[in-house]
Amino acid sequence: xxxxxxxxxxxxxxxxxxxxxxxxxxxxxxxxxxxxxxxxxxxxxxxxxxxxxxxxxxxxxxxxxxxxxxxxxxxxxxxxxxxxxxxxxxxxxxxxxxxxxxxxxxxxxxxxxxxxxxxxxxxxxxxxxxxxxxxxxxxxxxxxxxxxxxxxxxxxxxxxxxxxxxxxxxxxxxxxxxxxxxxxxxxxxxxxxxxxxxxxxxxxxxxxxxxxxxxxxxxxxxxxxxxxxxxxxxxxxxxxxxxxxxxxxxxxxxxxxxxxxxxxxxxxxxxxxxxxxxxxxxxxxxxxxxxxxxxxxxxxxxxxxxxxxxxxxxxxxxxxxxxxxxxxxxxxxxxxxxxxxxxxxxxxxxxxxxxxxxxxxxxxxxxxxxxxxxxxxxxxxxxxxxxxxxxxxxxxxxxxxxxxxxxxxxxxxxxxxxxxxxxxxxxxxxxxxxxxxxxxxxxxxxxxxxxxxxxxxxxxxxxxxxxxxxxxxxxxxxxxxxxxxxxxxxxxxxxxxxxxxxxxxxxxxxxxxxxxxxxxxxxxxxxxxxxxxxxxxxxxxxxxxxxxxxxxxxxxxxxxxxxxxxxxxxxxxxxxxxxxxxxxxxxxxxxxxxxxxxxxxxxxxxxxxxxxxxxxxxxxxxxxxxxxxxxxxxxxxxxxxxxxxxxxxxxxxxxxxxxxxxxxxxxxxxxxxxxxxxxxxxxxxxxxxxxxxxxxxxxxxxxxxxxxxxxxxxxxxxxxxxxxxxxxxxxxxxxxxxxxxxxxxxxxxxxxxxxxxxxxxxxxxxxxxxxxxxxxxxxxxxxxxxxxxxxxxxxxxxxxxxxxxxxxxxxxxxxxxxxxxxxxxxxxxxxxxxxxxxxxxxxxxxxxxxxxxxxxxxxxxxxxxxxxxxxxxxxxxxxxxxxxxxxxxxxxxxxxxxxxxxxxxxxxxxxxxxxxxxxxxxxxxxxxxxxxxxxxxxxxxxxxxxxxxxxxxxxxxxxxxxxxxxxxxxxxxxxxxxxxxxxxxxxxxxxxxxxxxxxxxxxxxxxxxxxxxxxxxxxxxxxxxxxxxxxxxxxxxxxxxxxxxxxxxxxxxxxxxxxxxxxxxxxxxxxxxxxxxxxxxxxxxxxxxxxxxxxxxxxxxxxxxxxxxxxxxxxxxxxxxxxxxxxxxxxxxxxxxxxxxxxxxxxxxxxxxxxxxxxxxxxxxxxxxxxxxxxxxxxxxxxxxxxxxxxxxxxxxxxxxxxxxxxxxxxxxxxxxxxxxxxxxxxxxxxxxxxxxxxxxxxxxxxxxxxxxxxxxxxxxxxxxxxxxxxxxxxxxxxxxxxxxxxxxxxxxxxxxxxxxxxxxxxxxxxxxxxxxxxxxxxxxxxxxxxxxxxxxxxxxxxxxxxxxxxxxxxxxxxxxxxxxxxxxxxxxxxxxxxxxxxxxxxxxxxxxxxxxxxxxxxxxxx
Length: 1407
Hints:
Layout: E1 7-9, E2 15-17, H1 36-55, H2 58-68, H3 75-82, H4 87-95, E3 102-110, E4 121-127, E5 137-143, H5 154-157, E6 158-164, H6 169-188, H7 199-227, H8 246-254, H9 256-281, H10 292-313, H11 316-328, H12 332-358, H13 361-369, H14 379-392, H15 399-421, H16 434-464, H17 475-502, H18 504-507, H19 513-528, H20 541-569, H21 574-586, H22 594-619, H23 631-653, H24 663-692, H25 694-698, E7 706-708, E8 715-717, H26 721-736, H27 742-749, H28 751-774, H29 784-794, H30 796-799, H31 808-845, H32 861-897, E9 909-911, E10 919-921, H33 927-974, E11 997-1004, E12 1007-1011, H34 1014-1030, H35 1042-1061, H36 1066-1078, H37 1085-1089, H38 1092-1101, H39 1109-1115, H40 1117-1120, H41 1124-1127, H42 1130-1134, H43 1137-1140, H44 1144-1162, E13 1167-1170, E14 1173-1176, H45 1178-1222, H46 1228-1264, H47 1271-1278, H48 1280-1330, H49 1339-1369, H50 1378-1406
Parallel strand pairs: 11-14
Antiparallel strand pairs: 1-2, 3-4, 3-5, 5-6, 7-8, 9-10, 11-12, 13-14
């Protein structure tokens, strides 16, 4: 059932693909009728597929995911395919324990032959690979264990691989898989198990890889043989299969036509064979480094080619053709047989050569797989095999081929050596250790020697034998490549030795040696970075570069010698010279002159000994002392340095044992011993003298601790510096290892205490100086009593305490306590001044009372006034607060500085006038002290009042600075750029200042104005300056009641609020008067408002905005050029515009001009800056754009009015013509009317075509210009051209219809004309006899007859017009009827006459 059904959609929307052959996944669809039984079968199949699907798990998804990653299918499609047939069961067998080892899937895409655009058919199927041809892509899964495959281990135990031919077949797929994946992986494999433990295992591993490479080579040769097989062209002219019997062959030979075709094909085959033979004999194009394996492959390919050619010759068609030629005795047969013989010879030659070359395969394998060391064992066997080929081969033993074989062997040896040296190409020569490279180079050179030695042995053996062929070949040609390679290796050996020698340059620390090392490295790097392969002996570039490298190294040695000479010239010390010589000696560069330089150093050493002796004689009384060294220890240290200076080179000389055996060296040692003895005696003499002087220095410790400077009275520490010098001497002698006296050791034991007391006391005196320096000059006179207290504490140090006293530390502690109290007082005073007073004063100056916006921003004058008012109100409160803080801080500071006065006895003073200011001191024993105390108290009070007034003035100056700076900021921000000049920074004059106030340029017909006006802005600025000055009303003078000052501040705030918010009412005036009565404190307003600088700034600011009237008026010129928009009357302009503008372009031009003017106006600057004013142009631009749009609308309406009339007239014509042309044609009148309408249409056609374009264009312009037009009018214009085209079609149809019916009406017209002629004759005769002009007829009767005959004539005239038009229509001669024309004139005249007659008669009858 599944074989007959096509594709059936399942419930999931997928397609179940039925296949006839499951392994190929092919679809075979047949159109059959599905009966009830078939539906049941389908349902059953569907259930089976779902049952299979339920068995699929993560293992199946793993396989599906691997395949989907390679093929162009979705996972769902692959899953549907795997449900077909028994594929799922075979996969389960693969997963089971001890199941099948592999799964193989084939995949192919077959394009549609009928429609190439259709997607190709995709086939995926499971196979064993034995029956189906390889489609080009195969995917296989291999299991690595015998245990069952589970979802948890499938990723580790199942390997996935791909066989992909890329159009080359199964051989190429296997070759790619092995050469690109397996062989590289095996070569990189480091763990081979037990094979990695010994050399035998390594050999087996090498042989295995060799066999694998050989197999890949076999696959490649097989592909090449199949690709290069020889085939003869097919014989399509005659089916030679029909000629099977001799009779048929004889009959074909007798048929000239058939024979001619057979000979022609035979000649073509001969040419093809000749071409193949010629190509086989041509010289092979091979690389010059190929090995002997290429020779064997060449002959194998040639054998395969000639075997295929022989198979073609022995085929049925060729034998039949030859039989026909033989029967016909054709001349072509001779050429065929010659070629047949040549093919046989070539085939035999290839077979023989392949046979003998196969004997070499065993011996040439080591050339490809072994290194030069292990390759040596195979050379004897290789020589014997080549010797055997030379003796027994029938074709290959020519001198050329044998020489070529040796060359290929040599090439492979060279290649193997290169691979051995470069680790199979993974590492360059420079990237390996030098020892390894040198060993490998030696092995390669040994291989060359052994190779040539075995050749010579074989050659000698063959020469000694008489039965063998000559074995003498061109040795230059055979071994030249290897010899050249060894020459290159010799140079590399030399290069490696040079690298080893000069590597010491990089290890040396000689100054300047880095440059030489860098030069050597640069030279070597330049050689190393050459793009060629240094092992390629064919390229001589290395030889030239190596010679150049050696030249650079030679120059480097010469310059290194010069550098060494120059370096020694700059070395004055023998020790440094010896150290430098030793460093150069360690380089081990033979070309450096070390011995000559050593002799020069000996001479220099003798000179230094003499210089040291002279130096000793010159300075032994007053030697130069080292820094921080005492005199005696310094002398000892100086003499020891001289001794060390002459001793150090001696130890270095001993390192040059061979060079120290010279007479000059012995002389230098003798001079050294003599001078060293003198230096030792000098040291001992001065040490003894110092030991005797220690007792004299110890008496200096009995002096007092403090003294005063005789000139400035400054307190100084009374400490003798010789004591410290003694301590330093003892310390230095102990360091030098010399003996110190007992008294010196006792004093040195008390060193820490003495020095500690000295340092503590010195620190205390330094602290006293520091604290005195911290006292500000402003408070120095108030600080004198506090300084006197410190002097009382210092007084024992001048008289009582010495350096041997036991209570020195207590004395020093009392000094520190007094200084701590003094410093605390100073810090409090300075802290109050800096942290309270100065910060408060700075806080006043940093307040902001100007409501200007930040730079780059603008505001309105209302916003400016509001911000300024808020800032001033807040600032007034803050300034008063700062004033109180400063006053309180000053008072607190004075309280700290004023010492509490000691009580003076009441009987010691007398008040003269009852006034405290005049005091008389009563004479007492302590009168002087009391008098001094009273005077000091008066001075302190005077100084306190001066300090109080100083800080009060400081605060007023801060208030003035706040107001002045704020007004100056306002002045600088409002001052136009051209008038501004900054005294602090004159260069700022040229900079453009940002605007401050935002105004608007407005169109107030008929002029342009600025809103708000300049006067309003100027008034706002003046109000702002008044607010700034008014903050001083909230600030009160010092020395007033603080509580009343806070109330007064609130009163000022309320007063200013009332003044600034609204006019004073009678009630508010009364309240304000009450508040002002409460206030009795003085504020700073008068002081501030009368300040000259404040008045000057107020005066300047009061006119700063008013002076800009001309500048603002000039700014209006940008928009005055558009004044025609509002000065010209649009209604007057539109009158008569329709007559003036006859074309649409006229209207469009004006509308476009005004529309462009809108863009020009819109593109004008959004604002204009003039000094501090930012004049916004949005209002005037909007007004001007509105005016321009009004002009556009006016012109648009005028144009609409004009062309609306044209539209109406045109539609009236169209309607009239359509009605007239739509009338059915029944007689000549209808034809006449239709012809008349057609004539009018033709006459108006050009005019209408010319009018349609302007009409449509005008309405299109109206839409583009956004001018409102009724929609029904627009719709009519849109259908105008369609109506015209429809009318033209109708006219054409009517014309065609008239042409069709003209014959019928033409005959009918002729008949009617004849009848009409008779009617005219009858009417004329009757008119003459009985008409209104007959003789004897009364006027009344004549009038009655006129009416009757006029009626009859009208019918006759109508027929006349119809027939005349018919004659014109059909191109006939128009018949003239003079009587009709005459009667018409007479009737017209009679009508007028009798009408007048009847009127007269009626009037008469009315009377």
